[in-house]
Amino acid sequence: MAVSVQPSRVWRYRWRRSDVDQALAGYLFILPALVELFVFLLGPIVYAFVVSFKHFSYLDPLDAHFIGLTNYIHLFQDPVFLRALWNTTVYALVVVPVQTALALFLAVVVNRIRGKTVFRVIYYLPSITSTVGVAVIFGFLFQPNGLLNRLLFLTLHIQGPDYFNSPVFALPAIMVVAIWTTAGQFMIIYLAALQDIPTELYEAAAIDGAQGWQTLLSVTVPMLKRTTFLVMVLGMIGAFQVFDLVYVISGNSSLPQQDTMTVVLDLFEKGFRTMQMGYASAMGFVLFAIILLLTLIQQLFLGREDS
């Protein structure tokens, strides 16, 4: 006697098998990316975290041994690291607000004029210019006989300093270069957000009598709150991770390196010049903790949606 199978059960079985096959195919497609993620990103992070609790040097890896929290404790007793942390904090406190305000100003101006594409390209060019090239250009501008000092002498009869070799002006000069190179990048983000603000809000504000600065402060800035959070977080991360610009400028400076030392530059010196890889790994995770804490604080003030 033949056994009859209900069509609904057959359809359900085929549907489930098809669903599994599709999921399997999807996982197979993303498998190379997952392998790359675990091997080249998550794996080194876990390894570096383990190494941060060891006395470890690639010059003598067999001598590596566990030392607990010694690397982390020594960090906050190391005058070079503390000076680097202070320089980096001052750098971030100046660069992030200034570049954010400048990016917003440029975006508002460009959004109101014709030829937006041309200005986008002009303002974005510094962001994609080689750091070495930027350092060389500003090195000529900030020389004792450079363009900036000549302008100061011609207009105010002031003889300016040798900026990159001055313990007072070296870090501020680097800040100026950093702001010039990053403001255009964040301007693009603000410009995209400005074009998403409904025109009805500006029309309503105009009916209520708002003009100029009132419209900017009561409509534009509140509507850009989430974008400002994104810009400030990205700017803060970039500021605390500053390396290439300081490395290039410090390499051509006669200053003691502590005057322009940053955390990542100190990490590079410890990890790849003195080969204290365990100590450098601990430094990296302390920097990560600082960035995470500051991001959460910014999330608290800027990241929440208004009810």
UniProtKB/TrEMBL annotation:
Question: Which key words are in the record?
Answer: Cell membrane, Membrane, Transmembrane, Transmembrane helix, Transport
Q: Which PROSITE patterns match?
A: ABC_TM1
Cellular compartments per GO CC: plasma membrane
Tell me the domain of life.
Bacteria
Q: Where in the cell is it found?
A: Cell membrane
Single biological process term from Gene Ontology: transmembrane transport
Q: Where mainly located? A: membrane
Stored InterPro entries = ABC_transporter_permease, MetI-like, MetI-like_sf
The topology of this chain with respect to the membrane is: Multi-pass membrane protein
Domain ABC transmembrane type-1, first and last residues per copy: 85-298
Task: Report if keyword Transmembrane helix is assigned.
Answer: yes
Instruction: Please report a single Pfam family linked to this protein.
Output: BPD_transp_1
Membrane-crossing residues? Answer: 24-50, 90-110, 122-142, 169-193, 229-249, 277-297
- For whether the record's keyword set contains Coiled coil, the answer is no
| Family membership | Belongs to the binding-protein-dependent transport system permease family.
Protein's name according to its UniProt entry: Carbohydrate ABC transporter membrane protein 1 (CUT1 family)
Q: Which organism is it from?
A: Alicyclobacillus sacchari
Q: What is the lineage of its organism?
A: Bacteria, Bacillati, Bacillota, Bacilli, Bacillales
